[in-house]
Amino acid sequence: MTYGCSTFIRLPINFIYLPLFLFTMQGSERHMTYAGAGVDIDRLDEIKSGIIKKGLTYRRRGFGAPMGDVGHYAGLIDMGLFALAMTTDGVGTKLIIADAMKKWDTVGIDCVAMNVNDLYTMGVEPLAFVDYISIERPDDELIRQVMIGLNEGARQANISIIGGETAALPDIIKGFDLAGTCVGYVEKDKVVTGESIEAGDVVIGLPSSGVHSNGYSLVRKVIKEAGLKYTDPLPYDSSTTIGEELLKPTRIYAEVVPIFKKYRVKGMAHITGGGLLNLRRITKYGFDFNDPLPVPPIFTWLQKLGGIEDTEMYRTFNMGMGYVIITDKDNAGAIVKMTDGKIVGRIVEEGCVIRGIRLW
């Protein structure tokens, strides 16, 4: 069971963009936060490490006993020579935007991605997936489109969807929710835990496809308070709407499987809710991002629009880097050649700095 740095866009100031410009100037005084939008990452971490972790004390003995402690990206079960890995996750409030746009054909990809990407971080190859859809009332078209995305996500990750559950819960659910559970396997002596990471190791960053599936409570608050609609065109790209950009599916990092099977990978991280704070899950060491990936315009626009501080952006969003690989200097070059990423920094004794911003 698992629990689970900025450049501004220069907008033309004319009669079309003046209201937006004035709002952003006002927004910069408010400093919106993820906690202010209803998601307090620090409080959630306290609950996970306190109430949840302390409450789950029973552990099976004998064959099939758990390996390790609760709290990494996936849970491991001892299966002899192999470990069976399990993780579970959902799409979150991104689904509210899908409802508003009546476009549900990509959220299934998000659901698969949020699970398989977590498995990859531990050197696990995903095998099978089950989904869970809870819905206010049956909707044939919604379900049909969700299945399209789930099937495409399974294709990208090379997994089988072997079952699932659809429940109509009108007294509980408003709209619908989508989550899933994924299992995979890894040889026990090849589990990637982050324990071998040391100062001087190389950090490789892989680009994200956009906002992915985290931070949407804050995203939606920013859009709402700006008086914008998801069908409005993006100010920096009139060829697409705000909703279409925000519904871009989470990238599935399946290309890392042959990497961790061939090269010595010391640690990996899927950058999800909590942004770069996720890196603290895999090592006690710090990070110096001296050559980070470019920040996509969706993030700089949201930051300007909501008056969000730099630190809050990197504590909430992936900021253009959705996955991190940590390795030694000898293997870094070969690994980079197998990806569309690059070396973004190095491991240091403590702290995390990116673009002059200290995150911890």
Describe, in plain words, how this protein is organized in 3D.
By secondary structure, the chain is of the alpha+beta class. The protein has 2 domains: 26-37 and 195-358, PurM-like C-terminal domain (Phosphoribosyl-aminoimidazole Synthetase, Chain A, domain 2); 72-190, 2-Layer Sandwich (60s Ribosomal Protein L30, Chain: A). The chain contains 11 helices and 15 strands. The chain has helices at 18-30, 41-55, 94-101, 107-120, 140-157, 216-225, 242-246, 256-262, 297-306, 310-316, 329-337; strands spanning 66-67, 75-79, 82-90, 125-135, 160-168, 176-187, 202-207, 233-234, 237-241, 265-270, 286-289, 321-327, 342-348, 352-354, 357-358. The protein has a 7-stranded mixed beta sheet with strand order 10-12-7-13-11-14-15. A 6-stranded mixed beta sheet has the order 1-2-3-6-4-5. The model is unreliable at 1-28 (pLDDT under 50).
